[in-house]
Amino acid sequence: xxxxxxxxxxxxxxxxxxxxxxxxxxxxxxxxxxxxxxxxxxxxxxxxxxxxxxxxxxxxxxxxxxxxxxxxxxxxxxxxxxxxxxxxxxxxxxxxxxxxxxxxxxxxxxxxxxxxxxxxxxxxxxxxxxxxxxxxxxxxxxxxxxxxxxxxxxxxxxxxxxxxxxxxxxxxxxxxxxxxxxxxxxxxxxxxxxxxxxxxxxxxxxxxxxxxxxxxxxxxxxxxxxxxxxxxxxxxxxxxxxxxxxxxxxxxxxxxxxxxxxxxxxxxxxxxxxxxxxxxxxxxxxxxxxxxxxxxxxxxxxx
Length: 303
Hints:
Elements: H1 3-12, H2 18-29, H3 33-42, E1 44-47, H4 53-71, E2 88-91, H5 99-105, H6 108-118, E3 123-132, E4 140-143, E5 160-166, E6 177-179, E7 207-208, E8 216-220, E9 225-227, E10 238-244, H7 260-265, H8 270-275, H9 291-294
Antiparallel strand pairs: 1-8, 2-3, 3-10, 4-9, 5-8, 5-10, 6-7, 6-9
Helix pairs in contact: 2-6
């Protein structure tokens, strides 16, 4: 049975699944039904203009501060050449660098689609930036995020999923994200011959995501994606949020280490607290399991 067929069946029986019913009602309230169909059919969808101008400015500035601190020099994001900053580096663990990242995490439209993919109990696995300058080594080969240790064939439902915000303009020459539409249905990672995004080995099915700052792309964990090398001056800045089902080990640690001031800002926001592992029952030491938390474990694909 195809994924669309199986999930269409789930949609038809939403009344028998309270969690699914809640998720679909939220998607309908937010006017995201067309984006949901695109996500089902192609394994990804684009949300335009999600971030405000202020959020773009604050997030970009926070990322730039981190990079400049690490490399020990200033950068002009508009004009930098390979001599200033070459290829790509990943900037991890951005959530606690600025309150704007907490705002972005909780934006309701992307979160509604992520909830559809991973359930109401999903976790933030990581939040970082792929900071990319000019250079052919800045290419990120096509891959599936399920490729790290998950046996093939992959399940049709998503075990993890990605949300990528453009903070600077995206185009192929600017080093854009690349996606292979429909690849989520293959239920496997690309072979070495299918991974290329540059030169004669480039996969012809890979398409660039042409985005403006503030746009977002969300995709199923099975979907093949990567990024093209940047060929023009300047820096491509994104914000990449990676999510996973509650039983998947997260890339970053949040349980037990969330700063107190962050917890206090979100005392009454159960969803935020759950995203940073507030309902995660595992990882105990001598105190043993908390059975009250374990009793809240998800019961299905959407809960």
